[in-house]
Design goal:
This protein has three domains: 346 residues, no CATH class; 222 residues, no CATH class; 178 residues, no CATH class. Helix content is 50%, strand content 17%. It contains 27 helices and 25 strands. The strands form three sheets. Strands 1, 2, 3, 4, 5, 6, 7, 8, 9, 10, 11, 12 and 13 form a 13-stranded mixed sheet that branches. Strands 16, 17, 18, 19, 20, 21, 22 and 23 form an eight-stranded mixed sheet that branches. It has a four-stranded antiparallel sheet with strand order 15-24-14-25. α2 runs antiparallel to α23. The protein starts with a helix and ends with a helix.
Length: 806
């Protein structure tokens, strides 16, 4: 029986190739899109889930409370680590210190004073820790053990890094590296490569004692008031230990060590957050290259559900339209004795064959698109859809689509009365069915209009971000990033003079950070010899040419002169306003206390965007301190850009042959701030296009159904003198009304969804009704084009042939 069902199904598919191709194509595209989104969401949810103790690992974060409100921090003071080990002997505690953009130089094993030609600037940096961290995070050792990190001047590598530096991981054992031109370490362990779906990219790990021995390079201090996000602690809670109980102990710990001065404006309280929160909490950073909010993953999941729902709706519309052509077949089968369930089995089998083919094609299409996922997501590794979760997901889709898309048309045919079926009147006898079909088309257009509106808003916001006035000139500014130490400081003046002699260079500035940067350095301060203010001030350190190179605007006073250390400061407008100073000129001559010393304010600059446009402008102080100048900003003449860049590279290698640097333009660095938003905008474009494609097929199904239902009506209208235009209008009027009905539902949904997304930006566009009018017009125009072909064809059909239709 089943074999017979599938043979007849295959024969019917061959008899209606165009119908089968359209139906299979729409469903295959929907399944492929859904599979790709499943891969992205699954990958993001899998971050660090490979850790055996995933559910018991906690990150030690801090809640800082001040009169201005509450803020969260991912770092802890350096001395807190040793204190935590003493006061929490019952709980494993480990720490990680990350030094970003670290330079790694491979030394000659036989002569550690001799460097090879292998020098690297590692973007993910070097981590430092001791053996305790491996009692929390579990990794496979190829050689050595965690115990080697108890000793100073030792390090371990992953297999990939060992091969990069030494050719093979076996040869890496005993090898010598120089980190940041300061720490000479011996490789005494090799780890199996760590999966990329981790927020702890531990490629190189030096011992904790090595880091502590170089405070000038790595900033280690015994001061409890110094906190950096690069120094983080973790705990592994024993089974059945309540995190809330540990948090109570951490509050007491904070009060004992960090809140000792009761007059402090800022009070800090440490607390545990689960490892499962690290990758998704947008308020607290991590060591990884990105954070993905669960709201974003929910949005992607909803889009995937929408796309497969649209594919099912399209399938139902086309399948139901096809049932009208086969109603006589159903009637004849019933007259010859077929039962309702036999007919149902026959038609559901045909639909299953269609779904099976669509699933296979969708899987192939998804596989072909997998390499391009890196452009719409943060996934950089090669993935496969032939994983157990993906296969189960695909099988689930196949079953769900068959039931959702196949049951309705199969029940229509199997339940039809033979007399109505033989007279081709199934559809007209089921008014409720027609209403359902129209409802499904409305649902399709709701989804497509939401995605179209979301795309318009996302593109508009990203255009605003890229064209916004940042308060400084980002064009043609080349940024060099390297390590900084006393050797670099000593050579910087000569390097600057050499750069200024290059024809295409206009100005040069050394600094700790560009005007807009993702990283921040902040601390408490006092103004005009008063007690500490109730908010923090953010610091940017730059030389005397910082203002000229980056094109900042001076509102009052002057910019400070040349100095190696901090002597004078310049502040921004936001700080002037937060200090309740009437105008910028009145701030000149007053003093700020940063740390223990007071510094005069000599100038005020116009506000510039200190971070990405997601954040408000920070109250900022700019001053000098050449020991922190790891960035070189070079303003170039656009007419001589390429030649200047080549000469700059040669000049760097001449002055700093033992140092590696990275080069990128300021506008590229700023664009990288919005990598995820750009990817989401691209994703909206892609899936809005898919939604439009599928909804067009759905419209084709609806018009096919209408044409089949009203064949005789069209013939009669033509005999009575109706024009082709009036008949096209007859078909167009109904679906146009459906589109406008869909817009009433889509507009509030799209506004709510995108308004929440825009709330991630401190600086954003306003959502206007024009966006939704444009989305509706797009839907109408696309729909008219789609329907035009089928409706004109019906209008041009011979009236004689139409009137002969039974």
């Amino acid at each position: 029986m089943l074999k017979n069902y599938f043979l007849i199904a295959w024969k019917n598919l061959n008899s209606h190739k165009t119908f089968a191709a359209i139906n299979i194509g729409g469903l295959a595209v929907g399944i492929a899109a859904c599979l790709l989104l499943f891969v992205v969401v699954s990958y993001e949810l899998s971050y660090d889930a490979f850790q055996p103790s995933y559910n018991r690992i906690y990150h030690l974060a801090a809640r800082q409370v001040s009169p201005e409100g509450e803020s969260l921090q991912e770092g802890i003071p350096y001395p807190a680590y040793d204190a935590l080990k003493l006061e929490f002997p019952d709980i494993p505690v480990g720490t990680l210190f990350n030094h970003n953009n670290a330079q790694v130089t491979v030394l000659n094993k036989g002569n550690t004073n001799e460097a090879t030609d292998k020098k690297f600037l590692e973007e993910t940096g070097v981590f430092f820790s001791d053996d305790h961290i491996f009692s929390i995070f579990q990794y496979k050792w190829l050689a050595g053990s965690a115990a080697v990190l108890k000793n100073p001047n030792t390090a371990v590598l992953t297999k990939k890094m060992a091969e990069k530096y030494f050719g093979s991981w076996q040869q890496a054992m005993g090898g010598i590296l120089k980190l940041d031109n300061a720490a000479t370490v011996k490789i005494e362990g090799v780890l199996q490569d760590i999966p990329q779906n981790t927020d702890f990219p531990l490629a190189i790990m030096g011992s904790y004692e090595t880091m502590k021995a170089l405070p000038k390079i790595y900033g280690y201090t015994e001061r409890w008031g110094s906190v950096t996000s690069n120094f983080q602690a973790f705990m592994l809670l024993p089974p059945k230990v309540n995190a809330a109980a540990i948090n109570n102990r951490l509050t007491a710990f904070s009060n004992a060590h960090m809140n000792t001065d009761k007059t402090d404006v800022f009070r800090s309280y440490e607390f545990l957050r689960p490892l499962s929160d690290v990758h998704f909490n947008t308020r607290i950073g991590n060591f990884g290259d990105h954070i993905t909010s669960k709201a974003t993953l929910l949005t992607l999941s909803i889009i995937g559900a929408f796309i497969i729902l649209m594919a099912c709706i399209n399938f139902i519309n086309l399948s139901t339209a096809q049932t009208i052509r086969r109603s006589k077949e159903a009637g004849i089968r019933k007259v010859l004795g077929s039962t309702r369930w036999q007919l149902f089995g026959q038609f559901i089998s045909e639909i299953f064959v269609l779904v099976l083919i669509a699933v296979i094609l969708g899987g192939v299409l998804a596989t072909l698109c997998l390499p391009y996922l890196k452009h719409i997501s943060s996934i950089q590794e090669n993935l496969s859809i032939l994983t157990r979760p993906a296969i189960f997901f695909t099988v689930g889709i196949a079953i769900a689509v068959t039931l959702l898309a196949g049951t309705y048309p199969s029940l229509i045919l199997s339940a039809a009365k033979p007399v109505l079926a033989l007279k081709n009147k199934i559809g007209s006898a089921r008014v409720a069915g027609i209403s359902l079909r129209r409802g499904l088309v409305v649902t399709q257009f709701v989804i497509s209009q939401v995605l179209i509106a979301a795309t318009i808003i996302a593109v508009g916001q990203m255009n605003y971000v890229h064209k916004a006035d940042l308060g400084f000139n980002k064009e043609a500014v080349l940024i060099l990033n390297s390590n900084v130490d006393s050797t670099v400081n000593a050579r910087q003046p000569a390097f600057k003079n050499a750069l200024l002699s290059i024809a295409g260079v206009k100005s040069v500035s050394f600094s700790s950070a560009a005007p807009s940067a993702e990283s921040n350095s902040s601390g408490n301060f006092a103004y005009d010899h008063k007690p500490d203010e109730n908010f923090e001030v953010y610091r940017k350190l730059g030389d005397e040419d910082y203002l000229t190179t980056y094109g900042l605007t001076l509102l009052a006073g002057r910019f400070y002169g040349k100095s190696d250390t901090l002597k004078e400061v310049v502040i921004n407008e936001t700080l002037v306003k937060k200090l309740h100073i009437a105008n910028p000129q009145e701030a000149i001559g007053h003093e700020l206390r940063l740390g223990r010393l007071w510094y005069p304010i000599v100038g005020v600059v116009k506000d510039f965007k200190t971070n990405s446009l997601r954040e408000q402008i920070k109250p900022t102080v700019i001053g000098e301190r050449n020991a922190r100048y790891s960035f070189t900003g070079i303003k170039l003449k656009t007419a001589q850009l390429n030649q200047a860049v080549q000469q700059i590279s040669k000049t760097w290698n001449t002055h700093f042959p033992e140092y590696v640097c990275t080069q990128n333009f300021m506008d590229e660095r700023i664009n990288n701030f919005y990598k995820q938003e750009n990817q989401l905008s691209l994703l909206y474009k892609i899936f809005a296009g898919i939604a439009i494609f599928i909804s067009c097929l759905g419209l084709y199904g609806l018009v096919s159904f209408m044409a089949a239902q009203r064949t005789r009506e069209v013939g009669i209208r033509k005999v009575l003198g109706a024009s082709v235009g009036s008949i096209v209008y007859l078909f167009s009027r109904e679906f146009t009304l459906l589109i406008f009905l869909a817009s009433l539902i889509a507009v509030p949904i799209a506004w709510y969804m995108m308004n929440n997304w825009l709330n991630n930006f401190a600086f954003k566009i306003q959502i206007t009704m024009g966006v939704f009018v444009l989305a509706i017009l797009c839907s109408v125009i696309i729909a008219w084009i789609t329907v035009g072909y089928k409706s004109i064809r019906a209008a041009l059909a011979s009236p004689v042939k139409s009137l002969r239709t039974d």
